[in-house]
Amino acid sequence: MSVFMLVEIGVKDSGLYAEYIRRIPDVIRQHNGRYIVRSSKVTPNSGGWKPDRIILVEFDNIDNLRECFASPEYAALAPLRERSTATRSIVIESENTDG
C-alpha cells in the first residue's frame, strides 16, 4: 500500500538547495519513490499555513521510504538539505477509504 511523505521547505540558501534538488531525485527513484508534486507555487487556504515550498513523494510501501532515508546515498545528501533549508515533514499511510 502506498505511503506519502509531505515536506514543507523554507529555503535559506538557494545555491546549496539547488545542488540538493539536482541530486536527490536519483536517490528517491532508487527506492521506488515518485514525486507527485514539487512546487513553490503554494497558495495558503486556511489555518495561517504559508510554506515557501511543498513536496509530495509517493513510495510503494513504508519499507521503501524508510530504506531511502536510511540509505548511505541519502546520508551523503542530507547535510545539503539541513544547511540550506528549514524542513518539516510527515509520513502519510494510506487507509482503506471504502464506505
TrEMBL record:
Gene3D superfamilies associated with the record: 3.30.70.100
**For this UniProt entry, which residues form the secretion signal?**
none
Q: Which Pfam families does the UniProt record give?
A: DUF1330 (PF07045)
Domain DUF1330 spans what residues? 3-93
Q: What is this protein called?
A: DUF1330 domain-containing protein
Q: State the organism of origin.
A: Candidatus Muproteobacteria bacterium RBG_16_60_9
Where is the organism placed in the taxonomic lineage, from the top? Bacteria, Pseudomonadati, Pseudomonadota, Candidatus Muproteobacteria
